[in-house]
Fold this protein.
Amino acid sequence: MLAQAVLVSLLGLSALMKPVAAASSSSYLSASDSGAGLMVNVTASTPVESAAVLGKPVRRANFGQEEASLESQKLADWVVDSDNNGKLPFVVIDKVRAKVFVFSAEGQLRGAAAALLGMAVGDDSVPGIGQRKLSSIRPNERTTAAGRFVASLDRDINGKELLWVDYDSSLSLHRVVTGQPNERRAERLATPTPLDNRVSFGCINVPVKFYDDVVSPAFTGTDGIVYILPETRSAREVFGSYDVLDPSGRQASVQFAPGSTPAAR
């Protein structure tokens, strides 16, 4: 009887130990493991770092008191939350509202201003447009392309500083050009409506003081990322972005890494 009792005890102890062993070899992270109350299946196609992304607190851009469209806010929030800017300063350009927002690498707004943009509505550049003379570019070809661009300061052929957004298509952000008085570019920037801000060949024109005080210092000594919101497609189509306040969308977009978006340029 004593031997039988010992045997039963050993069997019971073995049964208690099996779940512990199974738990230690499980491919799931519990709430205590992830620190976020999420149960995430970690497989070969879902690395541990992606699982951590799902559970991290939402991070958002800080616009301060600056007015911004919902589209601009959502995109800037996604940039910060996903680290898509790669720890670099970044710019969000809202073509529909004709407005430029410049952020620090951490997502703190450094400044915002009205902008002049390409005359034509559209989100793509005409192939080879960067090699053509301005006089040959038709009005319907004068678009400001949407997308994600690695940008840096440089100088034009006259020695004036500008921010190169996409060199191949000659797309840049620069101080407002006022060489053609009939275009009234400075006056257009000063009006409260974006309806008269579509006048350029595609480049982004901003007020001189805004360029000197905000844009140039933000990009001095570093590259940065310029995000130009689309006007004929959704931001998700162009950037692979998600709404940071929508858990399902945030989870589905974990696979997007900085610089790997469909429109990265």
In short: Residues 42 and 48 are 6 Å apart (CA to CA). Residues 2-51 form one domain. The longest strand covers residues 147-155. The chain has two domains: 2-51, 59-252.
